[in-house]
Design brief:
heterodimer; A: 196 residues; mainly alpha; 3-methyladenine DNA Glycosylase II, Chain A, domain 3; Alpha-Beta Plaits; two-stranded antiparallel sheet; two-stranded antiparallel ribbon; 4 strands; 7% strand; B: 653 residues; alpha/beta; Rossmann fold; 4 domains; four-stranded antiparallel beta sheet; 17 strands; 13% strand; disordered C terminus
Chain lengths: 196, 653
């Protein structure tokens, strides 16, 4: 009987000691904020377009952390869904068509001679990428534009165009070679090959 | 003899150099048109400083470097600028880029040059400025601005001069070293002067004995310049590979040669530095090899930059019908030219016009059999097979983890691949995608910051507005208090406001006091009527009271007497006023009665008309009655009109 009490006492003591260690660690190594939200946010394309139904990428990240579907971000497309699925250990699902489809990246351009300087687009831009003042012509800072389309709707004179991002010699890159199933073996001289 | 090391891997393709290295360099005549790209280098596009129609002299600066990593562009010959527009780039993508097109006039008139007689007197910044001004970029292939490369941050102990020219077919550097050995050595001395006299090693493959001899002879007097003969192996001319061959050291991953105290320059670049400093000539021409079985006059040509490929092909008598593939650069690393109007740029070292089967046809590739030959051949000691799988599966991050960025795209792996897999293209694809992913990530990060800053700003603005509102209210209250304190005799604003309201009311009453005579008449009439009604009521009450109680009856009797007096007074007043206004109520009453009577007669007659027998007589009677009624109505109207007019006239008078 004494052995039993001893065992209980030792276990209780151990529980108290480890509980104290855990309690101390919880305070000492406390992580501020929700790291998972930041991680999700870093995977989202940050267009701040609101197509997911949230007023920005961060709120959507928060919603995903609370269990919302990961397939509501058209600008991110399959790549983002895949990355989110990897992060959250979920299954990659196809893009929810209800929230839009994956399109090529565009950038807003203001037809400057038609702009009346109403500043409505400036207020709509989520990333402050439009420059201008009241009754002065506005222009889009192309490098900052995320192509979110949010400036189109408020424009009273419809002078904003969404144009696809042009490929320049700096942004151009090789395509993946076409995958062919080879059935023939053409004459091939080793000394004069070219694979470049 | 300097000790020579070896690098991992490498291949030995057939050299094919004798087709073009037998004849001396031929100076190509000035073409009719020169297309000068503003981006012949790595870095920012130069900015044009001439305009369409301008006359430019040979060697004149036509486009300025923008930022640190950029290079000047000069006019290669004299003539008029005919256009500043986009032209096809000498690039795999065959995209267009900004160009200055010069229509040459054949005079080839030089701009004023400033040669340097004694370069020893020049300071380091002077030398750097001259190199930068001359627009010199690496002539070996990458085209990195030399002035940037020649101001390393760390201490340089070894200068490597690259004369390896390891790629098959190309002999431009070979002929350059044979014919311009003295200039190359002088150029090396200038570079040594610029970067603290490092020891110089010139690396030349052993398949160029004439070049080795020429340079050894030229460098004979210089103890700190050493010519090193290295075994022929592709890609010994790669910067990192040459450094390993000559020094046994490896450039660290992600680093540059300067990190291990070395700087590497191509022989062509050194010659351009000599031209720029000693002769004062900017970089406007280069030696380009034209070779391949389709070229009748294969050889090396001194061409002006901006010369179109088509002009060079014509001059070298290239049979385009025989040409199966036209390649810019060598067979291992070059790219197919899609537009023959593409111009020569600072780094174009070769044009290869290959006839049928000279280069392997682009064949279907087979599955990877995991033979591992690519790993053996890779000079960068990477795992080409793994990189291939990752690129194919689009697992770019994993490819990055396997040091994809260290791949020099030499093509050795693809060359040895028994399945003929275009491995380099997979790596280029993966590199391109990684670049895109990284730039998108950067953009996303910037957007995120901008979005968060904006949100914060909006919140701050709201708070600031609220603060301001509060502050304004406080200031107003304080101002009021101060005002009151300064002038205590001044009445309370509320009392003042009330007084104002009272004044207004009074004014309104005064206006009401000045009643129109018509209103006054009405009032009098009402007052008379009221007293009359009161009198009647009291009389009734009196009759009732007399029947029951005497005491009350007496009281009532007195009231009746008083009311009677009042009523008669009111009536008298009304009558007096009526007389004053010239009204005759009695006459009006009589007339009204007459009208009513006439109306009654007409109605009665009309009723009887329904049942009567003698219609004609009745109708006549009705007619008469109607006439009487009408006349009475007219008389009444006339009287009323007169009465209305009169008070006005009374008031006027």
């Amino acid at each position: 009987m004494q052995t039993l009490y001893l065992a209980i006492a030792i276990l209780a003591l151990l529980a108290i000691v480890f509980g104290a260690i855990l309690g101390f660690a919880a305070i000492r190594f406390k992580v501020d904020g929700d790291p998972i939200v930041d991680q999700i946010d870093s995977l989202l394309p940050q267009t701040q377009c609101g197509q997911c139904g949230h007023p920005g990428c961060k709120p959507y990240a928060q919603a995903i952390a609370n269990g919302e579907a990961i397939n509501r971000c058209p600008p991110g497309g399959e790549t983002t869904i895949k990355a989110l699925a990897d992060l959250l250990d979920l299954e990659a699902i196809p893009l929810d068509a209800e929230h839009g489809s994956e399109a090529i990246r565009t950038i807003a351009y203001i037809r400057e001679d038609e702009c009346i300087g109403c500043t409505k687009c400036i207020q709509a831009c989520p990333v402050d990428a439009i420059l201008g003042a009241a009754k002065q012509m506005h222009t889009v800072i192309v490098d900052e534009c995320t192509g979110c389309d949010l400036c189109l709707e408020p424009c009273p004179v419809d002078c904003i165009d969404m144009l696809p991002v042009e490929v320049t010699s700096a942004s151009w890159h090789w395509q993946q070679p076409a995958q062919l199933i080879a059935t023939s073996n053409l004459p091939y001289s080793r000394g004069e090959s070219d694979h470049a | 003899m300097h000790k020579i090391w070896n690098f991992h891997g490498g291949v030995h393709p057939v050299e094919n150099k004798t087709q073009s290295n037998q004849l001396p360099i031929i100076v190509m005549p000035i073409p009719t048109q020169l297309t000068m790209h503003l981006s012949q280098h790595i870095g920012k596009v130069a900015k044009a400083i001439v305009e369409t129609g301008d006359y430019v002299l040979k060697g004149q600066l036509i486009a300025c470097a923008q930022g640190v990593v950029s290079a000047n562009v000069h006019a290669p010959s004299s003539g008029h600028v005919s256009a500043i527009a986009d032209r096809t780039l000498p690039h795999q993508s065959a995209l267009s880029g900004p160009c200055i097109v010069i229509d040459t006039d054949g005079k080839d008139q030089w701009a004023t040059l400033t040669p340097t007689a004694n370069p020893e007197s020049l300071s380091k910044p002077d030398l750097l400025n001259l190199i930068q001004a001359a627009g010199i970029t690496g002539m070996g292939g990458a085209g990195f601005p030399s002035a940037v490369k020649l101001q390393p941050k760390s201490n340089i102990h070894t200068l490597i001069i690259n004369g390896a020219e390891c790629e098959p077919y190309i002999t431009a550097d070979d002929r350059l070293m044979r014919e311009y050995a003295a200039q190359i050595i002088a150029g090396i001395q200038l570079v040594q002067q610029l970067i603290d006299q490092p020891h110089c090693l010139i690396g030349i493959e052993d398949n160029k004995p004439e070049a080795v001899a020429a340079l050894t002879y030229a460098a004979d007097q210089h103890t700190n310049i050493e010519v090193c003969v290295i075994p022929t192996k592709y890609p010994s001319g790669g910067e990192k590979q040459l450094i390993e061959i000559l020094t046994g050291k490896q450039v660290p991953h992600g680093g540059i040669p300067a990190d291990i105290g070395m700087v590497c320059q191509n022989v062509g670049t050194v010659k351009a530095i000599f031209d720029a400093i000693i002769l004062g000539q900017p970089l406007i021409n280069r030696i380009t090899t034209v070779t391949g079985k389709a070229a009748a006059n294969a050889g090396n040509y001194e061409v002006l930059l901006g010369t179109q490929v088509t002009d060079i092909l014509a001059f070298a008598k290239v049979d385009l019908a025989k040409t199966s593939r036209l390649v810019m650069g060598g067979p291992m690393m070059g790219f197919t030219i899609q537009d023959t109007h593409t111009p020569i740029i600072k780094s174009s070292n070769c044009i290869l016009a290959a006839a049928d089967l000279e280069l392997a046809p682009v064949a279907d590739h087979h599955a990877c059999i995991r033979c591992g030959q690519c790993e053996v051949a890779c000079p960068a000691q990477l795992l080409p097979q793994q990189l291939f799988w990752f690129a194919k599966a689009e697992e770019f991050e994993k490819a990055q983890d396997h040091n994809l960025s260290d791949c020099i795209e030499c093509g050795a792996c693809a060359w040895v691949c028994p399945s003929q897999i275009p491995l380099v293209q997979y790596y280029r694809y993966a590199k391109g995608r990684l670049k895109t992913i990284n730039s998108e990530a950067q953009l996303a990060e910037a957007s995120r910051l901008r979005f968060e800053n904006r949100e914060q700003r909006l919140v701050d603005e709201k708070l600031a507005k609220e603060e301001k509102r509060k502050a304004r209210a406080l200031t107003a209250a304080a101002a009021q208090a101060a005002k009151r304190a300064a002038n205590p005799s001044a009445e309370d604003p509320i009392a003042a406001a009330l007084a104002r309201v009272n004044l207004k009311k009074q004014a309104q009453t005064n206006i009401a006091a000045q009643k129109s005579p018509e209103d006054e008449y009405k009032e009098l009439k009402t007052a008379a009527a009221i007293t009359r009604t009161k009198l009647n009521k009291t009389r009734k009450a009196l009759t009732n009271a007399q029947a029951q109680d005497h005491e009350q009856a007496q009281e009532l009797q007195q009231t009746v007497i008083a009311l009677t007096t009042k009523a008669s007074a009111a009536a008298a007043e009304l009558h007096a006023y009526e007389v004053k206004l010239g009204l005759d109520p009695e006459k009006e009453k009589t007339l009204q009665l007459a009208v009513a009577k006439a109306n009654g007669v007409v109605r009665k007659l009309e009723k009887s008309l329904a049942t009567a027998d003698d219609l004609q007589q009745l109708e006549a009677e009705i007619f008469n009655a109607k006439a009487i009624h009408e006349a009475a109505g007219l008389a009444l109207e006339e009287h009323q009109a007169n009465a209305k007019e009169k008070p006005t006239s009374t008031q006027e008078s």
